[in-house]
Amino acid sequence: MKIINRVILQNFKRFESFDTPLNQTLNIFIGDNESGKSSILEAIDIALSGSRSKVETIGISNLLNKNAVRAFFDAGKHYAQLPKMIIEVYLNDTGNSDLNGDNNLLGINSDGLSLICEPNIQFSKDIKTVLEQDGENFPYEFYSISFKTFDDRSYSGFNKYFNHVLLDNSQINNEYATKSYVKKLFHGNADVASRSVFENQYRGLKKHFQHDILGELNDGLPYQFAIKSNSKSNLETDITITEEDIEIENRGKGRQCFIKTDFALDKSKIALDTVLLEEPENHLSHNYTLQLIDSIKATGDKQVFIATHSNMIAARLGLKECIMLNSSGTNSIRLNDIDETSSRFFMKAPDNNVLQFVMSPKVILVEGDAEFILMESFFQRIIGVEPHQLNIHIISVGGKTFKRYLDLARNLNIRIAVITDNDGTYDKNIDHNYREYISPNWLISADQNDDRYTFEVSLYHDNEDICDELFGPGRTKLTVLEYMLQNKAECAFRLLEEKAEELVIPEYIQKAIAWISA
Questions:
Q1: Dihedral in degrees, nearest 10, Cα atoms 442, 446, 449, 451
Q2: How many Cα atoms are found within 13 Å in the side-chain-facing hemisphere of 30?
Q3: Which residue(s) pair with 443 in the sheet?
Q4: Between 370 and 352, where is the model more confident?
Q5: How far is CA 393 from the centre of its chain?
């Protein structure tokens, strides 16, 4: 079984530099929009394909990192400083000496494949002429595209070393994508010799149809009807996939997505080494998604890569298989990269908002339901817009788990405001407790008055008249504050429904909201 152990990117799309080790069977890239998870799948697909036309179709100008181009111009447009774009795919020991060498960025001996886009030295004079011009005219057209093994051997789509398929369910209605997929699966099921036999027999059948079936119609006509026999009309362009005699193109979007993914994952016959799935949950119902998860779990003879937003897919397939990305940075993180106790926590509690947290560039973490119920209203009053309009998410995680989320965020560049209780001792529970969690990206905000030890107490002391009016009538045993402490969520909901615009917002909450919005 061929395995991709590692991927390194240099100046590819949003990544100026990216390096991640990979799991042997399943890799799930999760992150928000623009975090780069789809770009990683695309990079693997390009490197494995050995296809110059694929790179040319996308365009080097769309692949080369924009920051690298900007830095080149800022540094004075010197020829020697033109950036290179590199994709390196490090493999397990395949036993193929053609793949093994140390021609890679790490300089280590390994099996591997690489794509290198760099200025073509044959056009150095032309490039320098372009760079001497005024303005910012980057010489994309003079870049060369080369696919090399780590042994420095060239390869292409005709002599590639991996059999793989990239399935993007967002392109379910794209006819070209569907034909490419069917062709890839056809190649996976039939070797070169078998395909040659099939092509020959198919061409013979078309000749038979033209001569024997159309012959009578053509008799006496000045021009003849015929069956196309060019490169755009052959077995590989005409073949499709059916289920119960219904062509896949005539199935609903959800069923098309499921059939394509399930067929690619099927291990009964298809000789694929690697399957790349872009948002496989797209167009799928809850039930189809569960069936798809079962298909992925049953795949043991292929390495599978998934880019997804789906909590269900990530949680059910296992958070330990996830490689987490965030649009605020270009680093990745796994659970085994963080503190062991935090890692165990997220493994055992996969529904603790971890995916929403990872996919958020800015987060307000609160302790409980009461704070969560009122926080959006507080935010709107202070800032004037809803939190999501500034790409800020409010997540209730429980005070005991704040540190777990901060551990997870260390390499993801997430801006976090923690709104918490001082629990009666600010110095001990805030200053001392979070002394190792100091970062310009993090704010730990709590009431500094030890008597105002929890959210309800602070809220009550700032709004005694309102709270007494709402919760005072009928009180015989409990004081208003005691009642609020014993019915936190219910009281917060009534305050939101009846007095939201009149409430005085505790100062430590105002501070956190202003900071996260800056």
A1: -150
A2: 28
A3: 417
A4: 370
A5: 18
Report the candidate in 227, 46, 245, 235 with the shortest Cα–Cα distance to residue 146.
46
DSSP H or E run through 188: helix 175-189
What CA dihedral angle connects 506, 509, 510 and 511, to 10 degrees? 120
pLDDT digits (tens, 9 = 90+) for 469-486: 999 988 778 999 999 999
The total of other beta-carbon atoms located within 10 Å of residue 147's CB is 24
Which residue do the tokens 């390994």 mark?
110
Which pLDDT score is estimated for 514? 97
**Cα–Cα distance, 106 to 189 (Å, whole number):** 36
Structure tokens at 323: 């490689």
Q: 126: which residues sit within 8 A by CB, 6+ positions away?
A: 139, 142
CB neighbours (10 Å) of residue 317?
A: 19
Name the 3-class secondary structure at 86: strand
pLDDT at position 181 is 67
User: What is the spatial distance between Cα 371 and Cα 356, in angstroms, rounded to a whole number?
Assistant: 18
Kindly tell me the burial class for residue 100, based on how many C-beta atoms sit within 10 Å of its own C-beta (0-12, 13-18, 19 or more).
Answer: middle
Amino acid at 413: N
pLDDT band with cut points at 50, 70 and 90 for residue 172: low
